[in-house]
Design brief:
By secondary structure, the chain is of the alpha/beta class. The protein is about 35% helix and about 20% strand. Strands 1, 2, 3, 5, 11, 12 and 13 form a seven-stranded mixed beta sheet that branches. The chain has a six-stranded mixed beta sheet with strand order 16-17-15-14-20-21, sandwiched between helices. A two-stranded antiparallel ribbon has the order 4-7. The model has no long low-confidence stretch (mean pLDDT about 95). It binds D-xylulose (XUL). D-xylulose binds near residues 13, 145 and 287.
Length: about 550
Amino acid sequence: MPGKLYLGLDSSTQSLTAMLIEVDGTNARVVLDSSLLFDETFPAYGTRHGVLPPAFATGASAGLRGIEAVSSPVMWADALDAMLGRIAASGVDLTRLAAIAGSAQQHGSVYLNWDAGARLAGLDPKQPLAPQVAPMLSRPVAPIWMDASTSTQCAEITAAVGGSAVLARRTGSRAFERFTGPQIRKFATSDPDGYAATERIHLVSSFLASLLVGAHAPIDPGDASGANLMDLKERRWWPPAVEATAPDLAGRLPAIASSWTMAGPLSTYWQARHGLPAANVVVWSGDNPCSLIGVGLVREGRVGISLGTSDTIFGLMTEPRVDPSGTGHVFAAPTGDYMGLTCFSNGSLAREAVQDAHGFTWSDFSRALEMTPAGNQGRVLVPWFVPEITPPVIEPKVHRYRLSPDEAAANVRAVVEAQMMAMAIHSHWMSVTIDTIHATGGAAANTEILQVMADVFGADVYRSTVANSAALGAALRAWHADTVAEGAPLAWNTIAALAQPSAASRITPNPRRHAVYRELIPIYEACEAHALGRGPDPTAALERFART
Ligand code: XUL
């Protein structure tokens, strides 16, 4: 008998992806994987890479042009309509569809007016979704995670709750410009009438779930923890932050419900419009919490490293430990645990800057790594080619110690070693003993880079082949929630088996090289401190290291 189907949707910055899995006992396989790009499929909205042009941003006249980033909730709804139509027409027997879960870009907020509840319940299946969503909005645009315009609001919220350390301890993160709370404060103070016209403020995730169930849906703790508003341990809105953010905000926020909560069946709109069944809709989560599942990181000690435009290290934590330096984030994980995440902006950007400086191809880059020894004979580069998030660096500057810019191969090794050592240093706060790393992202194709990763961390590295980890994570969450609803929850390890990388991709650390890095890491930390103007020149220590 054919098994049940589970659908995962991922509404990211630039696209909407759907992944349908079929489950037979404890085995799952992907039966459909489909994406649509917003810019390409919906040019009428005028987005570039999923972001509206600056004219749509509210603060253009206040000198905020360029750091504001907004997108269109109506476009996201349009995409949802198109994608569910595409799935309905795929020929897969959807009567077996048991549950749908979703993932969305984190932090973005959608402002719905007092009529929205009635409009959600009364969607007309003879009409497309988008024109029915536009009149629900009290703010036509949604600020998204790329927005950096709320420094003032961050400072105000931080001061009101008693400082950064208090906010981070309670909510998992100090105030960040892109987080939802500071964004809400900016709207409430700059457009009080718009705020008064707002009944409910959804995150992108709970907004899209609401469209599917035809009612205001709850939000899961994973995405709620990207708001600077949730008490991470209690998994409920934290009154001091809510009060510090905007007047009468508590009643405007969605309810928080555990990640496996059924928000309701797919509404009659979707049933009548696309002939879909009344499948259960699971509360949606953020893309990072969903990727945790979609990359198979369901136990402490296994972390993911994504080598993309920026590099990210993330992993499950059984306890809500918080980064005292304030650069890392802690979110609730869809497993009921926690997840730590630290982002570095000098990822591919820095690797490519070195590659380009020496006219290297990608295979020259690999050869340079092969030719040079671990520890680079004490030659170090601190790779802040662009402003860095971790540690925070506003004025980009590349620092070299015992290294000349023209030593091509040594610069290649230096940039990769620096990135890996920085990730090891700045993920220390998670207090997780890392034994396994799942590497994802474009640069994970490079085996020599992964070897440096294995040697620096002293951990096995596997290359993850999951391309749409957030959508897969959402599909797996749908399966998990269904097993909970049936009263026979499956272990996460079983659920996430589909996301595990192949054993054949394993790269093991070399103990001798790992010992070299154990010695070099504290010296690299001293290089960072020196580059930040907070410590003595580490050259003598590097010379001693080079002699050993
Ligand atoms: C995480 C963050 C991004 C978005 C991307 O804090 O801002 O990863 O979730 O969609």
